[in-house]
Amino acid sequence: MPQIIEFPARHYVGIRATVTMTTFGVVADRLGEIFAWLAERGAPPAGGPFFRYFVIDMKGDLRVEGGVPVATPVEGEGDIFAATLPAGRYVTETHAGHPDQLIDATAALLAWAESQGLRFDMTREPDGEHWGSRLEIYHTNPEEQPDMNKWETELQFRLA
Question: Between 121 and which of 11, 41, 128, 158 could a Cys-Cys bridge form, CB atoms 3.0 to 4.6 Å apart?
Answer without folding.
Answer: 158
